[in-house]
Amino acid sequence: MTPTTSERILELREIVRNAPEATSEAARRVMVANRRRDSRPELELRRAVHRCGLRFRVDLAIHVPDRRPIRPDIVFTRRRVAVFVDGCFWHGCVAHGTQPRSNSTYWAAKIEVNQARDRDQAAALERQGWAVLRVWEHEPTPAAVSRIAEAVSQAATWSGGRASAGINAAATA
Ligand SMILES: [Zn+2]
Prior knowledge:
The chain is α+β, with helices and mostly antiparallel strands. It has a single domain, classed as VSR Endonuclease (Endonuclease, Chain A, 3-Layer(aba) Sandwich), CATH 3.40.960. Helices cover 49% and strands 10% of the residues. The protein has a four-stranded mixed sheet with strand order 1-2-3-4, sandwiched between helices. The radius of gyration is 18 Å and the shape is globular. Zinc ion binds next to loops.
């Protein structure tokens, strides 16, 4: 996908801002429904990650220069690994990210803005030495857990001096 330019983003934000009243109400309902749906896989993933001995922070605000704090869904502070759990709807999953048929311009803009923000936040974190991992809502939990465990153990290796650090040693991350 071509990166969204800043002019394009401004244009999209304008579309989102100028949503007509009816759209706003319909939009609100879609948002509430999808927010509820999004939270389940995230909770399940957190529990599974916790069960394999990894300790993390939830909803921690990471401060990066010149922008608002970023709040990944799962944060391994010492290892500097940030995990985002992306809902298929909000983040425009190609397989399940079906957009509402009515007000399609509004929804396309809204989701494109989200995707641009995702990329932008990841880049800002990476510049600060964070490893960023994205997990789709539809991804099977065991697969997501093993990707996370892998990223955390690799981060431990890079941080130097903790050669013995593995999954279990991450208990206080
Ligand atoms: Zn999906």
